[in-house]
Amino acid sequence: MQRPQSITDNSNSSNDLKHLKSIDSNAVLSPHSMIQDLVWRKVIIIAFIHITGSYGVYLLLTVAKWQTWLFLFLTQIATSVSITAGAHRLWTHKSYKAKLPLRIILLTLFTMTFQFSCISWVRIHRQHHKFSDTDADPHNAKRGFFFSHIGWSMVKRHPEVRAHTVDLSDVMADPLLRFQHKYYSLLLLIIGFIVPTYIPTLWAEETKVAFFVCACLRCVIAIHMISLVNSVAHMWGNKPYDKYIEPVESKMVSFLAAGEGFHNYHHSFPWDYRAAELGGYSLNLSKLFIDFMATIGWAYDLKVVPDELIKRRVERTGDGTHPVWGWDDPDLSADDKKFVVMINKTRNTDGVFALDNIVSFLRQQFNISFSK
Ligand SMILES: [Zn+2]
Ligand SMILES: [Zn+2]
């Protein structure tokens, strides 16, 4: 486990970003070689979890009890939300605040997910936002699908990633996060592997099945679920909020990743606890969770971007695909309204029917002429 970078002042970040963008265009001509940079210890860990997870799929489909299926499903949802509502929206982006019991629950579940320590996760993700899709982005999507999805976690960090650090003073000051960081390997072993292997034995599941399904396979699913955000949600979709950045909107990713696929919006407004403007709870399980926690008083100071600010951003930098629900939607542009063709306009009439319309319709259909 790598220790997080030292805390640095990031006041020159916008200049850094301009510099990085020029580096990135050169990098296309001479791509960084992934093979040369492989870190074999990391390759073996990733290969191990995937081989054991694949065996978990086989056991799940052949011998696992229904209670084990249910346990896998519930732990999968709970741990997914711990990444999205916890490591992501709470600790990385500070989009809301949480009371101690909620922070303990989120951190415990997050530790099960095989996603580095929370402090490391925050460092990687803040760097991803700050230097998005440049060489200083740890999972730079411009280096291809495989690299941004999982390849980045098997190679040495790019020199630009090492050179550009972000402020971590807040998470480093949190004793809970420091504890989890310090004892991460031990906690992962206990909470991520031993506990989920033990619990299914309570309904007489075989230990072998419990280990490969509820520990290994569960970790593999969590890894790929969140990786979709780094790969797919930086490649294929619309950019209704900012067409000048790589992140896109992907409902499929939102469904699979507990609400994290509205990625063009999220990169435009990373402090919004919803990580989305549109989409109901079915596409944003993490918002449902945070709203529920706010209802019981464990989540508070939830930050939301006002509609007017979103609208201004859509008009200024959007690609024109921002959805509108219909005619009076405030997002319908004044230009679109001005050039609309309105047929069969309503006329003022004293009677029940618009007699003029009826006469005109009959004339058109049957070529009838009425003498006045
Ligand atoms: Zn992103
Ligand atoms: Zn983010």
From TrEMBL:
<feature type="transmembrane region" description="Helical">
    <location>
        <begin position="209"/>
        <end position="233"/>
    </location>
</feature>
<dbReference type="InterPro" id="IPR001522">
    <property type="entry name" value="FADS-1_CS"/>
</dbReference>
<keyword id="KW-0275">Fatty acid biosynthesis</keyword>
<keyword id="KW-0472">Membrane</keyword>
<keyword id="KW-0443">Lipid metabolism</keyword>
<dbReference type="GO" id="GO:0006636">
    <property type="term" value="P:unsaturated fatty acid biosynthetic process"/>
</dbReference>
<dbReference type="GO" id="GO:0005506">
    <property type="term" value="F:iron ion binding"/>
</dbReference>
<dbReference type="Pfam" id="PF00487">
    <property type="entry name" value="FA_desaturase"/>
</dbReference>
<feature type="transmembrane region" description="Helical">
    <location>
        <begin position="68"/>
        <end position="88"/>
    </location>
</feature>
<keyword id="KW-1133">Transmembrane helix</keyword>
<dbReference type="GO" id="GO:0005789">
    <property type="term" value="C:endoplasmic reticulum membrane"/>
</dbReference>
<keyword id="KW-0408">Iron</keyword>
<keyword id="KW-0479">Metal-binding</keyword>
<dbReference type="InterPro" id="IPR005804">
    <property type="entry name" value="FA_desaturase_dom"/>
</dbReference>
<dbReference type="InterPro" id="IPR015876">
    <property type="entry name" value="Acyl-CoA_DS"/>
</dbReference>
<feature type="transmembrane region" description="Helical">
    <location>
        <begin position="39"/>
        <end position="61"/>
    </location>
</feature>
<feature type="transmembrane region" description="Helical">
    <location>
        <begin position="100"/>
        <end position="122"/>
    </location>
</feature>
<feature type="domain" description="Fatty acid desaturase">
    <location>
        <begin position="66"/>
        <end position="270"/>
    </location>
</feature>
<comment type="similarity">
    <text>Belongs to the fatty acid desaturase type 1 family.</text>
</comment>
<keyword id="KW-0444">Lipid biosynthesis</keyword>
<keyword id="KW-0560">Oxidoreductase</keyword>
<keyword id="KW-0812">Transmembrane</keyword>
<dbReference type="GO" id="GO:0004768">
    <property type="term" value="F:stearoyl-CoA 9-desaturase activity"/>
</dbReference>
<feature type="transmembrane region" description="Helical">
    <location>
        <begin position="183"/>
        <end position="203"/>
    </location>
</feature>
<protein>
    <recommendedName>
        <fullName>Fatty acid desaturase domain-containing protein</fullName>
    </recommendedName>
</protein>
<keyword id="KW-0276">Fatty acid metabolism</keyword>
